[in-house]
Specification:
Order of helices and strands: HHEEEHEHEEHHEEEHEHEEHHEEH
Strand content: 15-25%
Number of strands: 14
Number of helices: 11
Structural class: alpha+beta
Strand order of the largest sheet: 3-2-1-6-5-4
Largest sheet: 6 strands, antiparallel
Amino acid sequence: MANASSSLTTNNEQLIALSKLLQTLRESNDLDRLTEAMVNHLQDHFDYRMVWIGLYDRVKHQLKGQGGISSLEDKSFLRKTFAINSGDVMEQVIIEQLPIGIPDLRQEKRAGQWAEMALNHNVQGSLILPLSFKRQCFGVIVLSSHLWGVSPHEEEKAHLATITGSFTSTLYDLDVESKHEKIIRPAKSVFHVLKQIYQKPSLDARLEKIIETTHELLGPDSTDIYWYSPEKRVLWHRVSHNPKNIKKMAEGINVSEFPDFYQALSQGDTIQIGSGPGQGRLKNQERLLQLFQCKSLLLAPVNLGQDVLGFIMGRDKKLRTWESTEKQYLTSMGQMITMVIGNEDMEAKMRRADQLRTIQRSLQEIFHQDLSWQLIMDQCSQFIQKHLGADHLIILQPPHSRGKAIADYTVVYESRDSHRELTEELPVLDHQTWEKLLGNIIPYYPSKI
């Protein structure tokens, strides 16, 4: 009777502990606190010598330690990041999302670094549980015993399924929140960049701001902008943000060597090369990656209509899965660069218009001065020569017949610093040139000539 009472008390204690853990997993959104609660519960209610909880990084295809139980004095491995290699047991658990039991982790050929971890901890029988929810794997839990071939009984399996299921459900909720933030953040970032770039004085400074913000948001090894030269049919490297010192690629890309790449740019397609589904393939993909000295890249064109102006690109030395929000953001940045170039062109036209208005006002002021015609023309000549960067100015009066050569024109005015004579006869103006000249004539009648 005493044994039955003791067993009942133990069961009640386990239920209370389980209830507290599930409440913590439901209510907390702090990952460290969630992991700590899981580790403490596993330590109190299970007899495992080594416990390791790792979260799966889909972008970098690796497992990052969040905590666990270790008998070693150096517990750094609990936070260690492990690469996932093709064909190893961790990849199998993540892909199949099914638990794996290993009789002796030390002897498992597909365990990789975990065989060494098992040897250091003197553990054998191990259970690797996937943290999966709605067909998505968020990580794994490694449970290892000092005994060979240990397999949990049905009650323990149910217990483990309950706590890992609740833990993974919370991880799913945190992931949804994170994805929502990733959607909101790029939108905020686009408006932030748009506000910032027009405070910059030049096109280069504006491009630097765009590339700096893009690099901060996407976090690649390098972010680059390339410009297209239609005359040479070459894409040349214009600006880069490269804090990790990734190898610099070739300065120029001959588009004739990558026709499908250029075609994708001209069609306005965003190009992504990496791991995971939806990562496109080009005919010369390997050559392109070799040229850019990377294994993954995300690239958005900078187009004006159907004309290729260049592209903006993020690239990584490791395989990486590019998220849809990252693709959308980079596409927005490509469009923003197009807008910046258009505004830069508009600003240049406005500056030229301001200069022309200044010239017109200055010439009008000169013409209205109480000076002789020769002095007026001298001042106008100096002003026009300075503006055009010309050595001298000659004003010709055409003959009555348009078919005459320019040598038959009458020299009305020649700047005083002109000492060079024409060495050959200037050609006859054709009809089209005459029409252009007549179309650009602005009648002006000064009061003093």
